[in-house]
Design a protein that fits this description.
Elements lengths: L1 H29 L5 H11 L2 H4 L1 H19 L6 H27 L5 H26 L4 H27 L7 H19 L5 H13 L18 H6 L16 H4 L21 H13 L17 H5 L6 H26 L4 E3 L7 E4 L8 H8 L6 E5 L7 H8 L6 E3 L7 H8 L7 E3 L10 H5 L6 E3 L7 H10 L4 E3 L5
Helix pairs in contact: 1-5, 1-6, 2-5, 4-5, 4-7, 5-6, 6-7, 16-17
Length: 490
């Protein structure tokens, strides 16, 4: 009875695998799913691949252990136990391979990076079937041992290939490679400063590397589009040509950057870092100019309006050094902002997209450790342009942090308690301050001098405070260009 069941199950396994292989070959070479609709669906289904991929790996090594024990302890480890475990492993392996192939169809990975992993996984599936059939069919210990060894070896190879896709090649982190890459980067930077650099490699690729390659590189190629070389840009992807020299409207890399943020085809997507105005303007000029890949910077008449962007990457003039310092500072601020978003989501938001200026709100602080938040905010304090601190204690630690914001434009302290000294510290050297809201606070006539020191303030809200009528009149007199809103003006 057991032998008959083994034959039936083996035939079913062979049929399922052959069907899967046939579908694999058909879809792999005909590639019928190129629409974004299918890409979204396949991305969702394929996302289960990382969830279940460890199951057949663990199960197989369990089967291997049972098989070895069966060879030496046949009476204690029954043949049916080994066969049943191997069959369960095969079922999970089929589902895992199917999910991985669907993930590939979603266009999230380049064929160059995933092909070896995909084919080695198919080889593992084939070897596993050979073991299941051989063990269940009583082909002998030698055959089963050889197929078990082959299956294990192929699994290790396939697993390594998958690990490289996810985590990168381990040897790329070897010290000699890291130091060599740093040296090459330094030499390329020095070459760019002499004007010997190339427009594409030294001015265009930095934008693509920072904003596009994560989804359109060798490892991942959404929409079959790679953007890590000049040839790949011209080749385009499943949706068309990314770069058409001299034609902005035909270059998808430009047209999709101008779509609304909420548009499904917007590039980069809303949740990804966006190009700033200087980067987008330079990229548009480069496409319009239709320059070849080997165009040298020194032989190119780059318009003056792109000087700031160009200087931020290459050049050794004083202006270039300043621009490079500003870019480095912006990158450092954005890196610190990303860390805060990861640790304390929503506490700090960008005031202007793609610009290193931020807004802080006390309402988003609930549930977070204030001391830890203050420590994380410290590197960004100077770049905070708006503070909404409503109905929350304003102690000395927060006052010290807020005082560092030299670019503060809006300060909202509704229903906060503070001393005259605290207000003095907060308002010191705030030349950019445009609006302050002190509604419901203990603001009184003794605080007026601190407001008058900031003559550039456009709006002051003092409703429900201890301000007297004479104090209100003094503010109106000393700040004629400021809109003062209080109980006396309503």
């Amino acid at each position: 009875m057991f032998k008959k069941r083994v034959k039936l199950v083996s035939r079913m396994a062979i049929f399922m695998t052959l069907l899967l292989v046939a579908l694999f070959v058909l879809i792999r070479f005909l590639d019928p799913f190129q629409d974004d609709y299918w890409s979204v669906i396949f991305d969702f289904i394929g996302s289960f691949h990382p969830v279940i991929l460890h199951l057949p790996i663990g199960l197989w090594f369990g089967v291997l252990a049972l098989f070895v024990l069966h060879l030496f302890q046949r009476e204690r480890v029954q043949e049916s136990l080994v066969f049943g475990s191997a069959l369960v492993t095969l079922v999970f392996a089929i589902f895992t391979f199917a999910a991985g192939f669907v993930l590939y169809l979603g266009g999230g990975y380049g064929s160059g990076s995933i092909a070896f992993h995909m084919y080695s996984s198919l080889a593992f599936l084939t070897a596993l079937i050979a073991f299941v059939i051989g063990f269940g069919g009583g082909f002998g210990s030698l055959y089963c041992t050889l197929t078990a060894i082959s299956t294990s070896a192929i699994l290790l190879i396939s697993g390594h290939a998958g690990g490289v896709i996810t985590h990168g090649e381990p040897l790329d982190r070897a010290p000699w490679r890291v130091f060599a890459a740093r040296q090459a980067k330094a030499e390329a930077l020095a070459l760019g400063k002499t004007g010997e650099g190339h427009v594409f490699a030294d001015l265009v690729m930095p934008i693509l590397n920072e904003k596009c390659i994560a989804c359109h590189g060798t490892e991942r190629a959404k929409g079959r589009l790679q953007m890590d070389s000049y040839i790949d840009l011209i080749k385009g992807g499943s949706k068309g040509l990314a770069y058409v020299p001299g034609d902005l409207s035909a270059s998808l890399m430009i047209t999709r950057m101008h779509l609304p943020l909420e548009h499904s085809e917007r590039m980069p997507p809303a949740e990804r870092p966006q190009l700033d105005a200087g980067e987008l303007a330079f990229l548009e000029w480069w496409v319009t100019a239709g320059l070849p890949e080997n165009q040298l910077v020194r032989d190119t008449m780059i318009p003056e309006e792109h000087a700031l962007y160009v200087n931020s990457l290459i050049g050794n003039s004083e202006e270039a050094m300043q621009a490079q310092a500003l870019k480095m500072r912006k990158n450092a601020l954005m890196a610190a902002y990303a860390e805060i978003q990861a640790q304390f989501p929503g506490v700090l938001v960008q005031s202007v997209q793609n610009d290193a200026v931020f807004e802080l709100s006390s309402s988003s602080m609930f549930g977070h450790n204030e001391e830890a938040v203050r420590e994380a905010l410290a590197p960004l304090a100077e770049s905070v342009v708006r503070i909404d601190w409503n109905r929350r204690p304003l102690d000395a630690s927060w006052i010290h942090l807020f005082a560092q914001s030299k670019s503060l434009q809006v300060l909202n302290l509704t229903d906060c308690d503070f001393s005259a000294d605290a207000l003095s510290v907060l308002l010191a050297k705030k030349n950019s301050l445009k609006k302050i809201n002190l509604t419901g606070t203990a603001f009184s006539d003794r605080h007026i001098d601190h407001l008058i020191e900031n003559s550039g303030i456009e709006t002051i809200v003092l409703t429900d405070t201890d301000l007297s009528k004479s104090g209100f009149s003094r503010l109106i007199s000393d700040l004629p260009g400021t809109q003062v809103i209080s109980n006396f003006s309503l």
